[in-house]
Amino acid sequence: MTGERDWRDGTRCVHAGLPEPEPGQPFLPGPVFAAPYHLDPERGPAASPNGYGRGDNPTRRLLEAAIGELEGGDCRVFASGQAAITGLLLAVLRPGDTVLLPADGYYTVRSFAAETLTGLGVTVRYAPTAGPYPALDDVRLVLLETPANPGLDVCDIAALAERTRAAGTLLAVDNTTATPLGQRPLELGADVVVASGTKALTGHSDLLLGYVATRSVDLLATVTGWRTTTGGIPGAFDAWLAHRSLGTLDLRLARQTTNAGAVARLLAARTDVTGVRWPGLPADPAYPVATAQMARVPGIVSFDLGDADRVARFLAASRLVAAATSFGGLHTTADRRAQWGDDTAPGFVRLSCGVEDTADLVADLTAALDASAPAAA
Ligand SMILES: *Cc1c(COP(=O)(O)O)cnc(C)c1O
Asked: What is the model's pLDDT at position 284?
């Protein structure tokens, strides 16, 4: 008999965070909607784990158990990825501290740092995800994002963790793009994982979610205290939907990775597409570290179609690729990042492969690229 510790991804996803079977009860209990709960008239909040919804919710706790199992740590969920990331940064950093952020990572974190952290007296420095990384002695916290969104460079987490440990620096890894089935940063030496659960983790494009996961008792207490006092919690229904979606994570990611591989090979073979990036392509600069570090490569491919007009023609010609931001959902989507003020080239596209049949997707993309190709090509 195999124990839970030996379970593979699909089995772990299906069972993550579920309560012990009880006759007459559902597999995943429905959402508990409550602001206050009934209290014991004599013993008060000491009598039950549920007193008030900002701190206590059983639906949220089950989701935290599930994500914690997958990441290999203790988890606290937040209302969005940004709530989780900014919560960690604000809870840990103090005036005079220095934080090192990815120069090519999620741009809202950079605008938050420039606007808010700098104003609080925190020194913000940047390093490209692929390195080189500067001396870390005076750095309080390094936030790593690997693979980085949207450029898809990667960083060797274990190698950097050795350096942060030696310097007494906290290492946080944004695991949004990889998901805990792609890599487990806590096992590679990171102190804490932050992520958006809005993307591939939940994968149905119907909710926002974020989380922090750690093995440090102190850090968990700091983050829990921060969340309870600032209140950035997800609602019970979103927490329940997210947990319901986790059961298919392995299946969804497997198809997304297959689709991304086929799409990346298609794009790389075309002369009217440049700058194709997918860490699973052997020619990709991220390939050596990605294949050594990650259990699977995410379903996101980035490339350049030259200009905004070509991107618009491509999207209009495609029947399967929806114009949308975010990524990791069931439906294939493409986002011209420059339209959001991101510092990417005007024709740069981040394509998120959904779970459609691979042959249909490749045929649709081929037709849309042909139909939108510059006249000379
Ligand atoms: C989307 C994203 C975030 C922010 O998450 P939200 O749920 O949208 O707040 C943070 N980091 C990365 C890498 C992301 O892709």
From this structure: 98
The 3-state DSSP class for residue 14 equals helix
Q: Is 80 in the pocket of ligand 1 (CB under 6 A)?
A: yes
Q: Whose CA is nearest to atom 5 of ligand 1?
A: 81
Give the model's pLDDT for residue 377. 47
Atom number of ligand 1 nearest to Cα 208? 7
pLDDT tens, position by position, 117-147 = 999 999 999 999 999 999 999 999 999 999 9
Q: Which residue numbers in the chain have pLDDT < 70?
A: 1-3, 376-377
C-alpha 49 – ligand 1 centre gap (Å): 30
Q: Where are the domains of the chain?
A: 4-246, 250-371
Query: Is 337's C-beta closer than 6 angstroms to any atom of ligand 1?
Result: no
Rounded to the nearest angstrom, the distance between the alpha carbon of 148 and the centre of ligand 1 is: 11
133 CB within 6 A, ligand 1: no
Can you list the pairs that 82-85 forms with residues at least 24 positions away whose Cβ atoms lie under 8 Å?
Answer: 82/108, 82/109, 82/112, 82/196, 82/210, 83/210, 83/232, 84/194, 84/195, 84/196, 84/210, 84/211, 84/212, 84/232, 85/109, 85/112, 85/143, 85/174, 85/194, 85/210
Per CATH, which fold does 250-371 belong to?
Aspartate Aminotransferase, domain 1 (3.90.1150)
Cis peptide before 150 (omega within 30 of 0): yes
What is the 195 CA–ligand 1 centroid distance (Å)?
7
Q: Please give the Cα distance from 118 to 13 (Å, whole number).
A: 40
From the CB of 151, is ligand 1 less than 6 Å away? no
Atom number in ligand 1 closest to CA 82: 9
> 149 CB less than 6 Å from ligand 1?
yes
Closest residue by Cα to residue 144 from 174, 124, 186: 174
The verdict on the CB of residue 196 being under 6 Å from ligand 1 is yes
Distance from the alpha carbon of residue 50 to the mean position of ligand 1, in angstroms: 30
- How far from the centroid of its chain's Cα atoms is residue 23's Cα? 36
The per-residue pLDDT for 2 is 56
Architecture of domain 4-246: 3-Layer(aba) Sandwich (3.40)
List all residues 6 or more positions away from 221 whose beta carbon is below 8 Å from its beta carbon. none
Residue 376 has a pLDDT of 55
